[in-house]
Amino acid sequence: MKWNLLKTPVFITALLLLLLNDFVLKSSFSNVITGKLSDFAGVFIFAVFWLAIFPKAKKQVILLVGLFFIWWKSPLSEGFIHYWNSLGIIEYARVIDYWDLMALSMLPLAYKYASKYDGQDAQFNTLAFSSLLVSCFAFFATSKASEYVDANETYVVNLPKDTVVNKLYHLDDLVFYSNFNNSLEVDTANGYAVNIYTGDSLSLYMDAEGNYHEPFMSDTLNCTIASNYCNNSFETRFGIRPSSDSTTIVHVFFFEYFCDKIEGDKETLKAIFENKVISKLE
Q: 265: domain CATH number?
């Protein structure tokens, strides 16, 4: 192991910058810069950290770190995150934003930087060990879990459902990470408990007496809403269903955000949702 990599000025500066940004700057100055700074600093120190542990496998380390970051920032990691969070140990979350992949540009810099120390003595000392511990803390603590805000808001849009779907997919402020897939909500108030069938045109629930029912809500989806609030984006889950041939119901289930809790969070998120989504459907 090359302990000297973990005590270099550049590595320590990047590590402190990551912690400062995640615990102070993001909540104080939420903007594009603070939103991306953690990704760039995080990719760099994460790569250098593993290059220090496996100094003889630099190319493999860079490749694996890149693949891990792509996986982490994609919907492919959603199932793992939900499973891990269900264990109740430490909850993790991240916003899916493919612009974050620009941070992969730090990998060649990390490789080149680590190569500068090839052949040098790697002596263990208190500074190197402290840097190791702080790095582990940063990796585990900075992808903190999100806050959920139950919305339970319903909006009536005077447009056919197909028109609403088309408009949603063409809104510049929305980034979808799941398709309309008839992932139905269970109406627990009326005892509907079992999703019998989910298809393109038919979805039914069976209650405790074995009776079939129409779904409470269909066509649910998750999306990220771009805004100037909370790291430049927040996520929401909402469903749509036709009320008539010319009217559509939009039901918002919850909002999810990744910054420190603030006063009036529901009102703030609701106002942004109405401005970025509902007003564009009318």
A: 3.30.530.20
pLDDT in tens, 147-175: 667 788 889 999 988 888 788 878 887 87
Kindly state the DSSP code that residue 81 receives in the 8-state scheme.
Answer: H
Q: Could you tell me if residue 206 is inside a domain? A: no
Are 178 and 262 in contact by the 8 Å Cβ rule? The answer is no
Query: How many of the other CB atoms lie within 10 Å of CB of 266?
Result: 14
Q: Is the CB of residue 255 less than 8 Å from the CB of residue 266? A: yes
Local structure of 260: helix, strand or coil: coil
Residues with Cβ within 8 Å of residue 171, at least 6 apart in sequence: 276, 277, 280
Span 203-232, pLDDT tens digits: 444 555 656 555 444 456 677 787 766 655
The answer to the question of residue 88 being in a domain is: yes
Domain count, the chain: 2
| Structural domain includes residue 43 | yes
Residue 99's domain spans which residues? 3-141
Question: In this structure, are residues 14 and 45 in contact, taking their beta carbons and an 8 Å threshold?
Answer: yes
pTM: 0.55
Instruction: Tally Cβ neighbours within 10 Å of residue 215.
Output: 21
* Contact predicate 248/124, CB 8 Å: no
Task: Please state, in angstroms and as integers, the Cα–Cα distance from residue 78 to each residue in 72, 85, 152, 177, 255, following that order.
Answer: 8, 11, 23, 10, 17
Average pLDDT over the chain, rounded to an integer: 76
Distance (Å, whole) CA 123 – CA 116: 16
Q: Hey, what's the torsion of the CAs at 259, 265, 266, 269, to 10 degrees?
A: -60
What is the C-alpha to C-alpha distance for residues 149 and 186, in angstroms, rounded to an integer? 19
Residue type, 204: L
